[in-house]
Design goal:
Radius of gyration: 27 Å
Order of helices and strands: HHHHHHHHHHHHEEHHHHHHHHHHHH
Helix content: over 70%
Strand order of the largest sheet: 1-2
């Protein structure tokens, strides 16, 4: 499909030789005048990249090799754009593919976008022979944007990719080639899968149906059946979600029959098909039926799962009560139980359970002042969720969104502000996506996450952007309180924090005349509460109010400023030491 790179696996001896060739060429390049040996280094890096791409255990090395290849191609392009621009576009495309597959969507955006821009220039200057490369780069950029929640931009690019593939297929004299039709089917399938992931199921089913018709006309065999299979599974998911399970049943019958035929005729292909089944959450039973993976491999023991959840929830409850030692032991117990179950062969759902427990452990660790441990735990949770989101998008996306928000906070606490902002932006994008799919259901959570995003923007000196987000957050909390429970203490305290942050953003951008109203509203709401929520960052709120009180006094609002200052002092006194 759109993000699969068909590299050459090769042997381990090939890999060793490719590394040696790169090192030898690097040495010759370093000692040579000018750039006349750079093409040889570029070719050596490209060959090593092709060998590494199918080896997940070497993906760290792959990203380094691809970054170096981009740098080499950029130097060559600066010397001779006409000759090397296409190589640079390809290197950027492959770099974006790898970063996207590894889940580093924000990092993938820049090379993906540059690849599209360069390939558009190639089409303009060299003609329609460059259209297939343009379609591939459009799909790659669309995938990154879609995963970051920028859906309209993503859909426009993916629709353009389908249109470009259609132009390629229609440009042939006579019937289009099977390769062109296969590429068009793949582009339609990518578009349909993304539409489904965004909750636009009816449109997704229509687009996937068109892709499936093309595949059926092509009658692919061998490895070419894999994208056909992916399209079938995606369409089955959408039809089932739309209540059209009867239409999905024959498709699953075809998938099972195809599996059985390959087992007899091409047993060497079975590893690829088993991996495809696993990636999409399916397994084959001994009697030839396709079933969800947990039905045949390591189902979660309900007793173990219940014990895990009890211990994890107990950890949160104890931490909320300020009993951090017992809380940490309970949260760690839950993590250990999950790991033991996975070691014993539990399935994918236990990996998701482990990620939940790691997320909770990170919260407990953070509340008790264990900052480094909190970051380690939530970082692992994010990685586990990224690995599971393709299998269970409806379940995992909200969990991934929440853990990304927590990851941003943990990174910021340790002073890693650019990385914290990237995590916060991705979290906010996913929460916007969830809110769009189910209007009103995720409003309070979206407001909370956007509030954190505003803080991350300020940490990175993006003050006007932060002010814009702060205004949106206040509006969201007001709307949430109007449409929900008026006496919800957590939502009210969310509005208090949002108002204080808005006042800070106004002051930061020189709008001192506007800070009085939100500050005093925050104080009024805070004093009406009987207490603060254990998960509220009261120390930060007290610091903000103290600063705002001083700002108001110096700005001539002495009476209100003193009230704000006293409120900050009271909040500090009742805030537990952590």
């Amino acid at each position: 499909m759109g993000e699969v790179d068909n590299g050459m696996l090769g042997t381990e001896r090939d890999l060793v030789e490719a590394r040696r060739r790169v090192e030898d060429t690097r040495r010759r390049t370093a000692g040579a005048p000018g750039r006349h040996v750079l093409p040889a280094l570029g070719e050596a890096l490209r060959h090593l990249s092709a060998l590494l791409v199918e080896r997940p255990e070497h993906h760290d090395e792959l990203t380094e090799v691809e970054a170096e290849l981009v740098d080499v191609c950029r130097q060559l392009t600066e010397a001779d754009a006409a000759q090397w621009r296409a190589a640079l576009a390809t290197a950027l495309y492959r770099q974006a593919l790898t970063l996207g597959v590894l889940g580093w969507r924000s990092r993938a955006l820049e090379p993906a976008r540059e690849s599209v821009e360069l390939t558009r220039l190639l089409v303009r200057d060299e003609g329609e022979g460059r259209l297939p490369a343009l379609a591939a780069s459009l799909t790659c950029l669309g995938n990154q944007l879609a995963e970051l929640g920028r859906h309209e931009e993503a859909l426009a690019l993916m629709r353009e990719a389908v249109g470009v593939r259609g132009r390629v297929a229609g440009a042939r004299r006579g019937p289009s080639s099977p390769q062109d039709e296969a590429e068009l089917a793949s582009a339609e399938s990518d578009l349909g899968i993304k539409l489904g992931e965004m909750g636009r199921r009816q449109e997704a089913a229509t687009v996937l149906g068109r892709a499936l018709e093309r595949y059926e006309a092509l009658r692919p065999v061998g490895a070419a059946v894999l994208p056909h299979w992916v399209t079938v599974f995606a369409l089955v998911r959408e039809l089932t979600a739309l209540g059209r399970a009867e239409e999905a049943r024959p498709l699953m019958g075809w998938a099972a029959a195809q599996y059985g035929e390959l087992a007899r005729a091409q047993p060497d292909m079975m590893a690829l098909f088993v991996e495809t089944l696993r990636r999409y959450g399916w397994s084959m039973t001994e009697d030839g039926r396709l079933v969800p993976a947990e039905a045949v491999q390591g189902p979660v023991d309900p007793a173990v799962r219940d014990r895990v959840r009890r211990r994890s929830e107990q950890g949160l409850a104890l931490a909320s009560a300020g009993e951090y030692g017992p809380a940490h032991r309970a949260a760690q117990d839950a993590v250990d139980l999950c790991r033991q179950a996975l070691d014993a062969g539990a399935g994918r759902h236990m990996s998701i359970e482990l990620a939940r427990c790691l997320h909770n452990l990170a919260l407990v660790a953070a509340w008790s002042g264990r900052r480094a441990e909190a970051l380690t735990a939530v970082d692992e949770a994010v990685r586990l969720y990224r690995g599971a989101v393709a299998h269970d998008p409806d379940v995992v996306r909200p969990l991934l969104a929440s853990s990304l928000d927590s990851l941003g906070t943990r990174l910021a606490t340790l002073g890693r502000h650019p990385a914290a902002l990237a995590a916060a932006e991705e979290s906010a994008a996913l929460h916007r996506q969830l809110d769009q799919a189910e209007p009103g259901m995720h409003q309070s959570e979206l407001a909370r996450v956007l509030n954190n995003l505003g803080i991350r923007l300020t940490d990175n000196d993006r003050h006007e952007d932060s002010l814009r987000i702060a205004r949106e957050v206040v509006d969201l909390y007001r709307q949430s309180l109007r449409t929900g429970r008026q006496d919800d203490p957590e939502a009210t305290l969310g509005l208090v924090h949002a108002l204080a942050n808005l006042a800070l953003r106004l002051a930061r951008t020189g709008r001192d005349e506007e800070i009085l109203a939100p500050t005093m509203e925050a104080v009024r709401l805070l004093t009406e509460q009987s207490g603060t929520h254990p998960r509220s960052d009261d120390a930060a709120l007290a610091e903000s109010l103290g600063w705002l009180g001083d700002r108001l006094i110096r700005g001539g609002h002495r009476g209100p400023g003193r009230i704000v200052t006293r409120t900050a002092q009271q909040l500090r006194r009742r805030t537990p030491t952590r």
